[in-house]
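Good morning,

Attaching, inline, the backbone tokens for the sequence recovery test we're adding to the shared suite. The designed sequence is right after.
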């Protein structure tokens, strides 16, 4: 089924499970579609599932996920209240980066995921997560700290931002102070979006 024909997130997940246009599914153990709340105001989009994610069929459950949970908790957000996914839904072999072709194959589903979720803000974890959807070329260090807007196919404009992937922060802990700034900016932008919705 085409992604556009899916009326809700459950139908979309079923369509992704049936989708054979991405070869990653042949080598992965499990589909990692998403985790969190279908009513979430904050949507986090990472790059690809790793070994732990592949085993459990959920995004961000390994070391990166534990750090992500801590980062969210620092600004008063729980994993159960946000929505987490990746630009590809299956683990690339040996944890290599997904190819542009693999990302492109999954992108229509991701675009529909955003339309159905209707988050108040999208946070891209890492530059490669942002590139396809925001149409940007730069790496994360140039993209973070800027305000972006993602426009859905039906014309809905959703505030977006880019920050470091937690896996990068585990390798480069000195960057955590910049990530903290990004988290404070996320909290501020979420408040702005909530205030607009309340008007």
């Amino acid at each position: 089924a085409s992604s556009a024909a899916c009326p809700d997130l459950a139908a979309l997940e079923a369509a992704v499970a049936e989708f054979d246009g991405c070869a990653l599914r042949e080598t992965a153990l499990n589909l990692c579609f998403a985790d969190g709340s279908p009513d979430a105001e904050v949507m986090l989009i990472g790059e690809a599932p790793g070994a732990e994610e592949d085993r459990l069929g959920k995004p961000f459950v390994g070391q990166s996920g534990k750090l992500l949970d801590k980062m969210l908790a620092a600004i008063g957000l729980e994993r159960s209240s946000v929505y987490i996914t990746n630009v590809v839904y299956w683990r690339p072999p040996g944890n290599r980066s997904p190819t542009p072709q693999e990302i492109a194959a999954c992108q229509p589903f991701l675009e529909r995921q955003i339309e159905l979720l209707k988050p108040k803000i999208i946070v891209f974890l890492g530059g490669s997560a942002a590139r396809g959807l925001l149409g940007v070329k730069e790496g994360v260090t140039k993209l973070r700290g800027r305000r972006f807007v993602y426009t859905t196919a039906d014309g809905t404009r959703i505030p977006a931002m880019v920050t470091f992937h937690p896996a990068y922060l585990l390798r480069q802990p000195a960057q955590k102070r910049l990530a903290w700034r990004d988290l404070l900016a996320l909290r501020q932008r979420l408040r702005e979006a909530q205030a607009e919705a309340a008007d």
